[in-house]
Amino acid sequence: MSALARYFHTKGFQIAGYDRTETKLTSDLITEGIRVSFKDEVEEIPFVFTRPENTLVIYTPAIPTDHPQLNTFRTIILLFRNVLRCWET
């Protein structure tokens, strides 16, 4: 995941991520300008990433299905799809 974060960061994208524990790798990412949160609280999601038309969510099977941030993104995407459907009809 860190390679993807670094790749998109070098391409000029805003990047944020979550990890359960701080490590040398996460510290390096933060030093490089990538936002990393160590709390799984929804409030930790930067506002800019709450707009699904501009957000790509990438996660691994290591993230539990009941993870609050992941479920928030799922809800945002479902709401966005419903709005688009209504707009098209």
How would you describe what is shown here?
The structure is a single chain. This protein has 89 residues and is mainly alpha-helical. 43% of the residues lie in helices and 7% in strands. It is built from three helices and two strands. Strands 1-2 form a two-stranded parallel sheet. Helix 2 links the parallel strand 1 (16-18) and strand 2 (35-37). The longest helix is centred in the last third of the chain and has 21 residues, at 68-88. The N and C termini lie far apart (38 Å). The mean pLDDT is 86.
Describe what is shown at a glance:
By secondary structure, the chain is mostly helical. The protein has 3 helices and 2 strands.
Helix content percent band: 40-55%
Oligomer: single chain
Terminus-to-terminus distance: 38 Å
Mean residue pLDDT: 86
H/E element sequence: HEHEH
Taking pLDDT < 50 over at least 5 consecutive residues as the criterion, the unreliable ranges are none
Secondary structure class reads mainly alpha
The count of strands amounts to: 2
Strand order, largest beta sheet: 1-2
Number of distinct helices: 3
Beta content: 5-15%
Large-scale geometry: globular
User: What is the rounded Rg?
Assistant: 14 Å
Q: What composes the largest sheet?
A: 2 strands, parallel
Descriptors for this entry?
89 residues; mainly alpha; two-stranded parallel sheet; 2 strands
Topology:
Blueprint: H1 2-10, E1 16-18, H2 24-31, E2 35-37, H3 68-88
Parallel strand pairs: 1-2
